[in-house]
Amino acid sequence: MITYLLRRAAFLVVSLLLACVVLFLLLRLLPGDPANALLSVGATPEQIEAARHRIGSDRPLPEQFATWVGQMASLDLGESFVSTLPVGPEIAARLVVTVPLTLLSFTLAVVVAVPVGFVAAHRAHTWYGSLLSGFSQLGIAVPVFWVGMLLITVFALQLRVLPAGGFPRDDWADPVAALTSLALPVVTVALVMSASLIRYVRSATVDVLGSDYLRTFRALGSSFTGAMWRHGLRNAAVPVVSILGIELATTFLGAVVVESVFVLPGLGGMLVKGIAQHDYPVIQGILFVSTFAVLLIGFAADLVQRLIDPRLRGSATGGRR
Amino acid sequence: MKRTTTSLIGAALAAALALAGCGSGSGSGGSASGGGSASAAPAGAFDPNATIEIGSLYEPQNLDNTGGGGQGVTEAFNGNVYEGLFRLTDDGKVENLLAEKHEVSSDGLTYTFTLRDGVKFHSGDPLTAADVKYSIEKVTAKDSQSARKSSLSVIKSVETPDDRTVAVKLSDKSISFVYNLSYIWVVNDAAKDLAKSEDGTGPYKLGEWKRGSTLSLVPFDGYWGTAPTNKGVVFHYFTSATALNNALLTDAVDVVTSEQSPDALEQFANNPAYKVNDGQSTTKLLLAFNDRVKPFDNKLVRKAVSSAIDDRKLLNSIWGDYGTLIGSMVPPTDPWYEDLTAVDPYDVELAKKQLAEAGLAGGFEFTLDTPNYDPHPTVATFIKGELAKIGVNVTINVITADEWYTKVFKNRDFSATLQEHVNDRDVVWYGNPDFYWGYDNPEVTKLVAEAERSDTAEQQTELLKKANRQIAEDAASDWLYLYPQIVVASSKLSGYPVNGLNSQFPAYAIKKG
After folding, report:
1. Residue B459 — very low, low, confident or very high, per pLDDT cuts 50/70/90?
2. How does pLDDT run across B183-214, given as a tens digit for each residue?
């Protein structure tokens, strides 16, 4: 297990470094000069030169890259070209919205999807089983922003029970107010996310239900519930956990859309604005943090899978898979 | 077994409802939901303790307007947090503000300003002539990113004979000088880090700026003038017009500084809880020709293209009944405005004739460089359709704002382009033959330069009217329309600006009933 952890940690660092290189180069391929984005129409060549010098875009690429990596190493994400404010603290301020949004949506989606997916598999031939499968198909087909707008129309504009968007100015000082602002966005993400989760849970359950070991176990006199509890769920969970990891990462990255629909001051809005303004330090900072988060989630999902399934654990110590 | 299933579903539903419900139960506690009825306030009565919630699409990039702060910082800070020597009112007049009076020397080259007494900065520092000198020099400094820098290049030196007197020497006469000073914020010369803090003399000081979300202003107790008629303002920033409208519909904001979604106006126009104000903006949408290159170096071709496009139909299709047609570069809020829409009227037959006269009876082809954001792509398509009627074939080339800047503005590598020009008084760009559109009429250049050297405002007005008429007759560009400036507000609100000249939004006189 220790060897495995070390190997994974090394893999994490290498991936992160590679991601940095790709990220840095991709940004530099964007057409246009960030200095132009800083100035208004009518700026003189001297003004543009001064701006370029200030943000360092007049220096050679390798030098710019070295500076950036150096900053990262000392946990400094640099300064925004546009606002001249440090990027790190601002990302931290935005995470106060994005992280709870992601975790709450994810939890809600799992809480809904696991039982619903199970029922959809176990009762596949009943009317409600088909209905649940149908709903999940529908949920996969509709885009997040559309669900968001629908919920706004119903709950904010018609019923007037929840705000149409925004986040309290004092963040979580009043948790009730903060949760109120997050209610519709969380439901939006959870609805869409649970739709695809239901399908994975359902197919994993179908596999388990048709398995020989479950039949054997029941033939030995166990009840269905007992059989599922002792063996079925654990087996069904293995593929589901890896999907959960992917879904959690997707939700974190996909917060962009829902944040813009609900005017939440999260990472998404910051990223979109940064891209529009060619604000490299902001874009790099956010993508760095997101990449790190996604890699960590993947790592965690792997770890959980190993804990559930001893066969995977064995392969880690016993050599190659 | 059945019971297991049911209880699982039940648990799931309960969890979902609990999450959703913890919000709905306490909806009124949320800061974003204002609540309350929308009944109209009795005339004259207002609540001096009300906070005004303002919805805007323009968040500042930083808080320094000489450091690339952008339109948003002007909207929030101009007149509210920072004041100039002069103020530009919502109807385009220039009034004294921090300058009590001023004198101009007989040669028109020295302006002497006397500062108002008893003015304090938010930090408590008194206003002195040194602050004014510092502020002017900050805008004209080498590293200044102010868009106003070039119009102040005429300043030779700023002197401070005593604490209340500022003397500015110019290298040339400049009748717009006082007007230009209305853009210069007077900043405390001891202030530090103006990108994230402020030290102005205005009726409000900065409360808190929560980037990506809100910026609040609170009344400044030591203000020299009339105190605000409200307890403060909060600017709420949005990135989409739909979200902004939703906020107005749910009372999360009281007023929208500039409505950008014409389709949404209906729901406010037909609702007594809101007032839709149709103001005059200074933003002109231009089909700018490159007057240096064929065939647009020929005046007849430019006139033909201008006459072939039905501006009224275009404006209607985009803004409905809002907006104004202008026949030239001058908006109605400029003193030298006159209606020139008849100079190049919509007349397809005339256009065909002019084209034939120019030797292009069979039409021609050109590429239209079109910025990729609204409304330009739509307008380009419309123009393509209109010009097909006179045999002119348009290729639309959609480019980003950044590419526009490099390709069109800097390299002048274009035939024709779409662009909006936002400021008032910018007809003077036609006096500059080096500007991107390459309009070069020595007569107009002379008129614009002479106008700037005028002794009186009347003389300036007369000369600029002449220049404006000339550029219209030359069809230097095709001025498609003037954007409307639509401020939508709760009908409980009064005292807000409706024209929003140069993106200002003075909030100190806003009353909430």
Report:
1. very high
2. 899 999 998 888 889 999 999 999 999 888 89
CA nearest to B463, candidates B451, B473, B449, B477: B451
pTM: 0.81
CATH architecture of the domain covering B284-482: Roll (3.10)
Domain-embedded: residue A37: yes
∠B50-B51-B52 over CA atoms, to 5°?
115
CA A100 to chain CA centroid, Å, is: 11
pLDDT tens by residue, B399-458: 987 788 888 888 899 999 999 888 888 888 999 998 999 999 999 999 999 999 998 889
Asked if residue B214 lies in contact with residue B77, where contact means CB atoms within 8 angstroms, the answer is no
Residue B112: how many CB atoms within 10 A of its CB?
16
Asked if B21 contacts A154 with a C-beta cutoff of 8 angstroms, the reply is no
Nearest CA in chain B to A263: B238
**Position A182 in a domain:** yes
Rounded Cα gap, residues A179 and B406, in angstroms = 46
Are the C-beta atoms of residues B504 and B88 closer than 8 Å to each other? Answer: yes
3-state secondary structure at position A86 = strand
A122/A179 same-domain check = yes
CA angle B321, B322, B326 (to 5 degrees): 110
Which among A82, A112, A265 is the nearest to B68, CB-wise? A82
Cβ-based contacts of B9 with chain A (< 8 Å): 115-116, 119
Q: Give the angle B197-B198-B200 at the CA atoms, nearest 5°.
A: 175
**Residue B20 structure tokens:** 């959703």
Residue A34, domain extent: 2-73
A182 inside 8 A of chain B by CB: yes
CB-based contact, A118 to chain B, within 8 Å: yes
A-chain residue closest to B23, CA distance: A180
Residue A301 lies in a domain: yes
Q: B458 CB contacts (<8 Å, ≥6 apart)?
A: none
Residues contacting B219, CB < 8 A, separation 6+: B203, B204, B205, B227, B228, B230, B231, B232
Coarse DSSP helix, strand, coil percentages of chain B, rounded to the nearest 5 percent: 30, 20, 45
